[in-house]
Fold this sequence. Notes:
Elements: E1 5-11, E2 15-21, H1 25-37, E3 41-52, H2 58-66, E4 88-96, E5 99-102, E6 107-108, E7 121-125, E8 130-140, E9 151-164, H3 170-179, E10 184-186, E11 190-194, E12 213-228, H4 234-260
Antiparallel strand pairs: 1-2, 2-12, 3-8, 4-6, 4-8, 5-7, 9-11, 9-12, 10-11
Amino acid sequence: MKMVEIEILEKRDDSIKFILKGVHVAFANALRRTILAEVPTFAVDEVEFYENDSALFDEIIAHRLAMIPLTTPVDRFELDALELDDYTVTLSLEAEGPAIVYSGDLKSDDPDVKPVTPDIPIVKLAKGQRLVFNAYAKLGRGKDHAKWQPGFVYYKYYTKIHISKEIEGWEKLKKLAKKRGLPVEETDSEVIVTTIKPFYIPKEFEEYEGDKIWEEIVPDTYVFTVETNGELPVEEIVSIALKILMRKADRFINELQRLAG
């Protein structure tokens, strides 16, 4: 049985890049889909309008509100549970023009659940126009609507590109790889570029692809990039997704045992 390993390549406030080793591609894709579809966040799900004299219909403003990322406190909710907490947060607004209404103008009745950034424009009000509403946010999952997706995730196969030194100008490819910040190994006969991020062969070398330039796919190894919208810390998104996967697997095994018994 292979040992599963994770190697962090890069960590920023809003993104993380890591190498996942020792898993089948089915698991890699399951992790990607779980992050997008199963990790819950708060988002506006219903809006009650009292006044709206703006140029935008109620439905358009409601849609804009739904797409504003809201902070989701990890320590207060069991986000890795298969059943979500039934909890509603009210974000209210009362504004009069002339003004531009921003996400930071929303008043939340829960200080832990609020817009991630205060400078998302919602609507412009002309002089004398008023906008008054209550917006109700709840926990949900991306599989039900994109507004509940915690961010974005993608992965690529971990590969090594072998470049023969028989190619005239191979030094240029080596220089390009180093400029891209890619690990480069060199032997007497070839240069080997490890693609922790995409590496595109210039058109002048395309005739050598598949022969003197060939790509080796490292088995069961993938480069993941996860980005957060800000609702959750990016490392928590990955952690919660893995826990949800484990819970689903346990439920599946228990159900099989029940049916078999």
